[in-house]
Amino acid sequence: MRILHLGFEDHRRPGSGGGSLRNAEINRRLAERHRITVLVANYRGARRRVEDGVEYIPVGLPLGYFPSLISYFLLVPLVARGCPADLVVEEFAAPMSSVLTPLWTRRPTLAVVQWMNSWEKSRQYHLPFFLFEMLGVRLHRRFVTVSEDMRDRIRAASPRSVVDVVPNGVAVPELAPGLRRGRDIVYLGRLEIAQKGLDLLLVAFARIALRIDGNLVIAGDGPDRRALEKQAAGLGIGHRVRFAGRVGGAAKFELLARARVTVMPSRFETFGIVAVEALSVGTPVVAFDIPCLRAVVPPDCGRLVPPFDSGRLAEAVLDLYDDEPRRARMGAQGREFVRQFDWDQIAAQQEQTYEDVVREGRAARPEPGRAR
Question: What is the CATH classification number for the domain harbouring 295?
Fold first, then answer.
């Protein structure tokens, strides 16, 4: 197959999240059997390239994060029409979710939905992004999403849709022998306050900083680093918070493996890949009890607390911090739990959906060569 993936976020872009990592892991596996082209939003330093057999083409203007996405949304239909494909895969993307692919192409289409929070972005930017999301869900008939919660949301908006749940995965590299657990609390992810709830994490850590001897390590990059540094200083914990920058590959898993506890203070999530990665190296996870995270933080692997309650978040971290036997039990359960998140199996599941959509499209249109 020739697969055109409207992927919007390049996994090489600073500040990119778990969704782009998912796409990279699946696409590089499928590239062994199919021709895959990914259109991504442009950014400074981006270039057209082939990586792991996948062609990446930047679209739009290399501006800041939000302006570059808007230019991507405006131009991607024009660029996509010039790319040959048997299947067009549209990745729902912030802030608008959908570029309404079925309106401008007759080729078979599939929506991959890892993100559906345009209402929050509409409130944040005071623009009606949610209208594109609503129409996009109604236009598409076939979907892949990463969680049962997201599947329920799609079906509620479009009862006729067919939605396959294909989760994210994890591939743990070989870690250094004798790696020892440290004393720090770790956050790993994009530095974005609105979604990731890092303002709530800083308030929670300020409550317990004097009662533990480890620091809070915030790893990742994103648009809100300066605001977070300012908040930490204002709370009097600036000297106890270390911003580690972007961490990837084996270094990422080593950081998680050394953590006493990993915290995910997100206000909303698509899947929670960091939780799975932390559990894969035996580190318990503390998070808010929100959709998607419930599916990847079972009670025997971590703690879920009432949403957006910094006090309860602090208590849960403190409760686990010095309880080594409990953390060890959770770590063992976590390693067992993540066995189901194998990238090879996940890629095969998504490939099957792709093949089904193309076959259905050919049956509905006997002359696909005429479709653009």
Answer: 3.40.50.2000
